[in-house]
Amino acid sequence: MSVQREDFEHTGPKQLTDVDWANDHHLRAVAASLVQGAYNLEFDRQDSQDPQGRWWHFFHFELKHKLIDDKDSSIYGVVYEIKCTYPNHLPESTPKFVIAFRGTIISTKSRDMKLNMKVFAGKLHKDKPRFKHALEAVKAVVQEAWPANIWLVGHSLGASIAMLVGKSMAQEGKNLKTFLFNPPFLRYSLSKNIKNPTLKDGILSTKNVIKAGISFVGGDHLWQELHHQFNKLSPWIPYLFVNQDDPLCSGYIDHFRNRKIKDEIRSIRSAIKAAFVKDPQLPIYLLPKAYLTISKISSSPLQAHGLKQWWYQMSIGPGFANSSTKVLIDDAIPVGEP
Q: Cα(first)–Cα(last) distance of the chain, in Å?
């Protein structure tokens, strides 16, 4: 599901002339706008147009670096730096840098669809031109500012990249404020949205065979490793924004509502043993904590997965605040619990 080019003068949150950096709705709108800026830069590159910077200049940011995939030459992200006349007067919560990752743009020359398949297969973390390059860029920014003054923001495929980067930095003890718009939850969505009952049952039963039949391989060191990875992420609390009508991300709602973390990690351990994986990694969707914002504004699947909804409601009235819920998810496992 691809996002379109947006004109700030027509659809942007122009009423935010004075951002309150302590207001969740303002932060959400700014973060989403900066991601849209990353989308527009790639559209401009494809159309050989000069970039229009209103999506970031309006909020007093400057474009510091473009993040370019060296395989398809696409602009997949942007490093922004805030530029204010009186920077010392800004609240402590104001970001000095924001790294924004766009989502899928459908193009014959783009690798985006291949990367979506890597998200689905759990292999995005192995992609050098996109994920590893993004991680290196974020680490370079961390050398210039405190982690508390750095934001990661992303939409769809870009949310997957931002989540993996955020997890990697959290494992190093650097917790970056992270805004994830419509992050894909494909493990759940695949079985939820397949209509053929035979195929659906086959997918679920195959997963259960892996869980139940191979769990005897090896010892308990995998449990300890996955348990350690999970709890090490606990201080990092990303902000997830999902629409209940979006088939690609709405799985997070039931996942957080119904999950049993210890059972899930044990199941993951069994699958890793079955595949003889030497470097066990937690699935991208598994988080100890998160702020989950659920949009209840009814819309088509295409609109529900769109980025514009996360700032546009502020342009037309207070409807979003009355049609969404925000909850803190906290499922950290006590240290040492088997």
A: 41
What's the rounded Cα separation, in Å, for the pair 160 and 154?
Answer: 8
d(CA 277, CA 96) in angstroms, rounded, equals 39
Tell me which DSSP letter residue 129 carries.
Answer: I
> What pLDDT is recorded for position 329?
65
As given in the structure block, the two tokens for residue 329 are: 């998810």
Q: Is 20 helix (H, G, I), strand (E, B) or coil?
A: coil
Q: What letter would DSSP give residue 291?
A: E
Bridge partners, residue 324, by sequence: 295
For 228-273, the DSSP string reads HHHHHTTT---EEEEETT-TTTTHHHHHHHH--HHHHHHHHHHHHH
Question: In the structure encoding, which two tokens stand for residue 160, read together?
Answer: 């997957």
What are 133-167's pLDDT values in tens digits? 999 999 999 999 999 999 999 999 999 999 999 99
CB 301 within 8 A of CB 247: yes
Q: Domains of the chain: which residue ranges?
A: 24-336
Q: Which two tokens stand for residue 222?
A: 């995998």
Residue 2 has pLDDT above 70, yes or no: no
| Cβ(293)–Cβ(240) below 8 Å | yes
| Burial class of residue 140 in the structure, from the number of CB atoms within 10 Å of its CB (0-12 exposed, 13-18 middle, 19+ buried) | exposed
DSSP 130-184: IIIHHHHHHHHHHTTS-GGGEEEEEETHHHHHHHHHHHHHHHTT---EEEEES--
**Could you tell me the CA-to-CA distances from 120 to 214, 248, 291, 306 in Å, in that order?**
22, 11, 23, 19
Q: What CA–CA distance (Å, rounded) separates 65 from 68?
A: 9
Q: What is the pLDDT of residues 17-74, one digit of tens each?
A: 999 999 999 999 999 999 999 999 999 999 989 888 999 999 999 999 999 999 999 9
Question: Which residue's structure tokens are 């917790």?
Answer: 175
pTM of the entire structure?
Answer: 0.83
Angle at 18 between CA 13 and CA 21, to 5 degrees: 95
Q: Which of 49-63, 89-103, 178-192, 317-331 has the lowest mean pLDDT?
A: 317-331
Average pLDDT in the chain:
80
